[in-house]
Amino acid sequence: MNSNHNETMKALISEEFGKPFVMKDIDLPKPKDHQVLIKIKAAGLNPLDLKIKNGQAAHARVTLPAILGIDMSGIVVKTGKNVNDFKVGDEVFGMAGGIGDHQGTLAEYITADAEHISLKPKNISFQEAAAIPLIFITAWEALVDQINIQPNQTVMIHGGAGGVGHIAVQIAVAKGAKVYTTVKPDRSEQIRKYGAEPIDYTVLSVDQYVQQFTNGSGFDAVVDTVGGSVLDDSFRVVKQYTGHVVSILGWGTHSLAPLSFRNAKYSGVFTLYPLLSGERKKHHGDILKEAALLLETGKVKVQLHSQSYSLEQADEAYSLLESGKASGKIVICC
Q: Coil, helix or strand for 141?
């Protein structure tokens, strides 16, 4: 596997929160009976990765020193004896580590539960595949698992140009919904290309866009990818009785009164649970199979930042993520 055949690999170690990574040679992980060993080709970065690196994500339960990184794509180089769905040479992608005590993806190799990953779509690059897992799984859990989105439903997605947001918009459009999303005006054209209606939240108030786009009746479903005051706004824009708000960042303290007065409902999404608990891992693998179908048919495309980074440049990549100046998902090529 490694050219030096000494069963070691290079990995970035986070030794202190908020400090640069340290490159080390460590032992190559060995796959358990239900796992595969993957040569990592690319690792995708998410805002959550930045929070973990800076020690601001207690819910991820990471204890240092640790190898961080959640998303990856790569090639299977070894399979455990109980693995039947994958063989050596398969190109795969998944949300594989960097949470709890799971080794992360900022390394040359990783072991992953075979139920937790999927074959990479043939028509996309390793970089694109590595950018997909966390954001797609999160968007799918919100729209399909929680809302059970149906054709012709009106869906408002807050933050439709962000990581989870731009995937959620495309999933909702692919499912036949009428999709609206709050974005800054410079992202309006991107949203229209996805087949959705951009709403300039810098100009229109909540009441104004509810009146303009739903004749005041509200949206069938709202997906909040922003949190904070945007979740409070979400409670005000759903339909009476049948409205459903889902948030991926519903961690603050919020007044439920506006939602209660609409007889509507609220759900949260916590995408990390299968990795932390060991439960429902197969569900993530199944969602990635759905992702592969939508990617292969061109119904979903992930927007990448124009530059990719090497493992040695990981700190630079995280700095770009922190600056908020990236033009799409940032990927580290291993």
A: helix
pLDDT one-digit tens code per residue, 293-326: 999 999 999 999 999 899 999 999 999 999 999 9
Q: Mean pLDDT, to the nearest integer, of 38-63? A: 97
Contact in structure between 221 and 153 (CB atoms under 8 Å): yes
- For residue 52, give the nearest of 275, 212, 207, 229 by alpha carbon: 275
Percent of the chain with pLDDT over 90: 97
CA atoms in the 13 A half-sphere facing the CB of 330: 24
What pLDDT score does 334 carry? 75
294: part of which helix (H) or strand (E)?
helix 281-296
| Cα separation of the two ends of the chain | 14
102, amino acid identity: H
Which of the four pLDDT bands, split at 50, 70 and 90, describes residue 77? very high
Judge whether residue 65 has pLDDT over 50: yes
CA–CA separation, 298 and 133 (whole Å): 16
Asked if 295 and 274 touch (Cβ cutoff 8 Å), the reply is: no
Q: Assign residue 159 a region (left: φ > 0; alpha: ψ between -120 and 50; beta: otherwise).
A: left
Distance CA 158, CA 234 (A): 8
Radius of gyration of the chain (CA): 20
Q: Are strands 22-27 and 8-13 parallel, antiparallel or unpaired?
A: antiparallel
> Is the Cβ–Cβ distance between 263 and 241 less than 8 Å?
yes
Which has the closest alpha carbon to 288: 105, 113, 108, 52?
113
Residue 73 has, within 13 A of its CA and on its CB side, a CA count of 23
